[in-house]
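Action item from last meeting closed. Structure (381 res):
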């Protein structure tokens, strides 16, 4: 980014003035530099990585030079070699630079970050606290909680994707409100879903197959509804957690739902858009959500929702656009699904609410602008 100067002949400027001018201008150029640390492949199609990439793209569009640093896979429980790589990455970043670290890597890097916290301006990006992840041991939860509290204390800012996560960090992790910033994900405009235009109700769930996403609970909730006309399409990574994927497939087989439930794996943008476009209902049995970007995408298409009342889901899903049930209860989930199947007026009301909620969606440009404001304040300070 170059700055215009007044109409002054170069010949009228002495050499010292030229040095001062260009040094000052280069300093302003450097102020627009940001380093972003990704834990693993940034092209992974999960809500967290999509958020990271869209924010980075938005800052690029606004004139920032964003240096992306990609760490090996394995976080939040990295191998020693991954931490060695992380140490190299941090060591190469010059002093006084702005550095955003995705929360998946932030806590495991706590000891490395301590060595550099005095010379770098650190920003933590927390999608949801790692200690609240499902499918980890009590010892792992305890370790992550200690690591997160310790590392968040070193961050000049802590960016979170929902007010729910902000409240959790304030009450349980010692992050003061002066350092907490809520920047909700953006959502792209999308055409309204039309459903399958058949008697069969088309259900859609978009979530990586991990314990936290509750696929097994959803399958158990659908099993008593065999007499209803429905089909379920599950979109999401099947390879992230092979043990959970195998368990979920066994659940489908045990209930005899192979012809009703299809696992489609990771889909590209156009194929995923077709899934939303043909959906009658979005379903999610998650045990925790920092925000729930797939829920926002469903609402952007005017698709109503049945989901669990956890994390930020009650904030993301308007009351007139979905039915929310307590987490961990397949019976409550069955009851909500049965209501959707059996009550045409309810379906119409929820669909109307979902379509109305499209007006609430914010753009990714707004999200990038909000982060830029915080970065500029840090530079000014």
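Sequence:
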């Amino acid at each position: 980014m170059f700055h215009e100067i007044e109409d002054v002949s170069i010949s009228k400027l002495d050499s010292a003035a030229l040095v001062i001018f260009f040094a000052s201008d280069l300093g302003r150029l450097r102020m627009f530099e940001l380093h972003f640390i990704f834990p693993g492949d940034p092209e992974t199609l999960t809500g967290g990585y999509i958020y990271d990439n869209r924010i980075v793209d938005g800052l690029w569009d606004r004139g920032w030079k964003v240096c992306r640093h990609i760490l090996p896979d394995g976080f939040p429980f990295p191998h020693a070699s991954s931490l060695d790589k992380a140490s190299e990455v941090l060591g190469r970043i010059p002093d006084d630079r702005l550095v955003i670290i995705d929360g998946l890597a932030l806590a495991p890097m706590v000891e490395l970050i301590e060595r550099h916290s005095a010379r770098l301006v650190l920003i933590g990006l927390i999608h949801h606290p790692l200690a609240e992840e499902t499918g980890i041991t009590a010892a792992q939860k305890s370790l992550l909680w200690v690591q997160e509290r310790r590392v968040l204390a070193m961050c000049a800012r802590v960016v979170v994707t929902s007010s729910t996560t902000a409240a959790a960090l304030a009450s349980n992790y010692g992050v003061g409100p002066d350092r907490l910033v809520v920047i909700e994900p953006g959502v792209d405009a999308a055409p309204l879903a039309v459903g399958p235009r058949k008697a069969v109700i088309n259900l859609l769930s978009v979530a990586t197959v991990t314990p936290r996403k509750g696929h097994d609970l959803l399958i158990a909730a659908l099993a008593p509804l065999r007499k209803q006309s429905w089909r379920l399409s599950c979109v999401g990574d099947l390879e992230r957690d092979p043990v959970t994927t195998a368990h979920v497939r066994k659940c489908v087989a045990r209930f005899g739902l192979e012809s009703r439930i299809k696992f489609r794996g990771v889909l590209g943008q156009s194929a995923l858009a077709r899934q939303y476009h043909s959906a009658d209902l979005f379903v999610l049995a998650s045990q925790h959500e920092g925000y729930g970007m797939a829920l926002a995408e469903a609402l952007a298409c005017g698709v109503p929702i049945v989901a669990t009342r956890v994390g930020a889901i009650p904030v993301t899903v308007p009351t007139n656009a979905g039915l929310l049930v307590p987490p961990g209860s397949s019976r409550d989930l069955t009851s909500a699904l049965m209501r959707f199947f059996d009550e045409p007026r309810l379906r119409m009301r929820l669909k109307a609410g979902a379509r109305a909620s499209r007006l609430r969606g914010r753009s990714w440009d707004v999200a990038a602008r909000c982060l830029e404001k915080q970065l500029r304040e840090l530079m000014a300070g």
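Note appended to the action item: Residues 1-31 have pLDDT under 50 and may be disordered.
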